[in-house]
């Protein structure tokens, strides 16, 4: 027969309410009483019925996180930091991978996944704001990234434009004048890639250097496509003395291709990225990059979501937060 809360209460010599308070981490319990209850729980092997408890309280102490691809190093690192930030507040995180598919992104907004969580951290790449607004329901939701910037939704993001301008400015200060950009379309203006490309163009304009769309190479944000994009520029005879990969894996792929082709980094071509992934620090040469304040992103997004859950954030309009960044100068672009 399963052990009940009544069994725990009898063994500890306390009331059923006291056992409930201990299980729910009620703040004002004498340490000795709390210890007796915990000892009884351990001795009897009691396991709380979390489903029943959540039905009574309306809270699950779980947060949802929807990311497109957990194999992407940036998303993996971000997920880890979000989980740690949530744990500091007594919450756990359920993760859903959408594979950048509309059905999966929309499916995370309702149904079992949504029911199991008190709030959602959401990184949409496919669906639009109207589709999300129609299905978001009443539980709090905080957007991550720049795919959707809408006053109806809370958003935590990075200062992409300013960070890209700072990185480009560093390359220009090092004497580079033909800076190739990997990972954007020449006319792109929205989303993460568009913002970073805009920052690049802003820095060029400040240095009175013309923007050349021939230096902008579209690529999905992976190592192999970064390598292929640089190979394409070399094969076309496009001259460049620096590469700005719009994320670190693009930059690392580009650097690999340059080295295979006998192009010296940074002597012939400087290389820089964006994200400050661990593998960039241990590359040879180590990668100059932008550290996008991932810890701040995690703390601010978790804090904002929990404030919404607890009703501590009074704003009806969405709150937009931009985390800071740091330029990490290393061997690939000193």
From TrEMBL:
Record carries keyword Transcription: yes
CDD domains (UniProt xref): HTH_LacI, PBP1_LacI_sugar_binding-like
Listed name of the protein: DNA-binding LacI/PurR family transcriptional regulator
SMART domains: HTH_LACI
SUPFAM superfamilies according to UniProt: lambda repressor-like DNA-binding domains, Periplasmic binding protein-like I
Gene Ontology terms, MF aspect: DNA-binding transcription factor activity; transcription cis-regulatory region binding
Coiled coil: none
Transmembrane segment boundaries: none
Boundaries of every HTH lacI-type domain copy: 3-57
Keyword set, alphabetical order: DNA-binding, Transcription, Transcription regulation
Top-level taxon of origin: Bacteria
């Amino acid at each position: 027969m399963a052990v009940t809360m009544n069994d725990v209460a009898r063994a500890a010599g306390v009331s059923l309410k006291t056992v409930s308070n201990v299980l729910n981490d009620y703040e004002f319990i004498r340490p000795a009483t709390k210890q007796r209850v915990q000892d009884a729980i351990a001795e009897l092997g009691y396991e709380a019925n979390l489903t029943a408890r959540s039905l009574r309280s309306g809270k699950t102490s779980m947060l949802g996180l929807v990311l497109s691809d957990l194999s992407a190093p940036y998303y993996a690192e971000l997920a880890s930091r979000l989980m740690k930030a949530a744990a500091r507040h007594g919450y756990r995180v359920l993760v859903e991978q959408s594979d950048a598919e509309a059905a999966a992104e929309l499916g995370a907004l309702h149904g079992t996944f949504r029911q199991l969580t008190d709030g959602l951290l959401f990184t949409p790449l496919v669906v639009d704001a109207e589709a999300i607004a129609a299905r978001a329901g009443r539980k709090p939701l905080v957007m991550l990234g720049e795919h959707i910037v809408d006053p109806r939704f809370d958003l935590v993001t990075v200062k992409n434009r300013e960070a890209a301008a700072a990185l480009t400015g560093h390359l220009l200060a090092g004497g580079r004048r033909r800076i190739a950009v990997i990972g954007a379309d020449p006319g792109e203006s929205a989303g993460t890639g568009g913002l970073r490309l805009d920052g690049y163009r802003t820095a060029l304009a400040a240095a009175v250097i013309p923007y050349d769309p021939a230096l902008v190479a579209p690529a999905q944000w992976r190592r192999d496509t970064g390598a292929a994009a640089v190979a394409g520029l070399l094969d076309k005879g496009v001259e460049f003395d620096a590469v700005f990969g719009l994320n670190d894996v693009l930059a690392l792929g580009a650097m690999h291709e340059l080295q295979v082709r006998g192009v010296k980094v940074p002597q012939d071509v400087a290389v820089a990225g964006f994200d400050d992934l661990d593998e960039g620090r241990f590359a040879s040469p180590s990668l100059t990059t932008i550290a996008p304040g991932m810890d701040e992103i995690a703390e601010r997004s978790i804090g904002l979501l929990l404030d919404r859950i607890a009703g501590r954030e009074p704003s009806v309009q969405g709150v937009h937060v931009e985390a800071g960044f740091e330029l990490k100068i290393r061997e690939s672009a000193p």
